[in-house]
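User: I'm writing a tutorial on reading structure tokens. Could you give me a worked example: one chain, its sequence, then its tokens, then a sentence or two explaining what the tokens reveal?
Assistant: Sure. Here is the example chain.
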Amino acid sequence: MLEPSPPASTDPKWFADDPTDPASATGIIVTPIDGEGITWTEFVSAHPNLTAYATDHWLGNLRRLRPLPEEFQNTRLTLHQLAYFVLAPKRFRETGKLGLRYTHRGFGTPFFGDDGQVRIEGDHIVFQQGARAHTSPISSVSSAATFVGIPYEERWFEGFRDPLDLTNPEKEMAIDAAAADAIGDLFGFAASVLEQARRTPGAVDVSRVQLWPEHFDLAFEMGSGNRRASYGVSPGDGTHDEPYVYVAAWGEIDREDTYWSDTSFNGASLSYEALLAAPDQRGLAVDFLRSGFEKLHR
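And here are its predicted structure tokens:
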């Protein structure tokens, strides 16, 4: 059964692992995306006792995104600090890779080493080793780093074009539980949308979905040459107060086409307001991403 929580991988090519790759699977595949086996939505129709599990993990029978809690922005900034200064460097020290993933109720590393994983689940940090999960309330960046067994380092990877600035590693963090759950839901929705969009007909040179710790968004890339683009979902940033779905083109775009509407980067964005209003939120987001690919490849 495939879901967005990938196993350990030693493949040096990728920063992130592939949670929906059916290549090594045998028998019947139960998958969160269409076209590669039985979808979770189909599976739970025959196994209704798993409906709540599939819905809660954003695998099938997807629930709707909801209006954002009041403390969403402040919590987003706090969780971004933890992604960049705690989770990503922990994985980097263990594997030389830094990509993060959606995990249940939040985000975290893929499994590494001897079945280890570090993740944010709601307003707690979790360090799992095998079957044992060690959990701690989030207090500060420094204490979170100590909890997962690494020193705090402001510059732990020199390859970032946009390194994150830290406010104060000892500062007490305030995380609103409802806002943290909303971010977890957004990343669950995003993982479902982006994994489906990776299977766009005609797609070439498709990368894997990962949460970039410096930008704190889930994204992948596809297309070649000047037609290549990044396809992603962001919880918000310095120019967007709310989450959005985006296509960021690497080459020139036709600004006369109203699709390419975002003026803060070279591409297009779909607003959270539009998602909330859509009868089929996932369908709208997948169609938006595929439209960008089609426009770039005409």
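What the tokens reveal: Residues 179-296 form one domain. Residues 132 and 142 are 23 Å apart (CA to CA).
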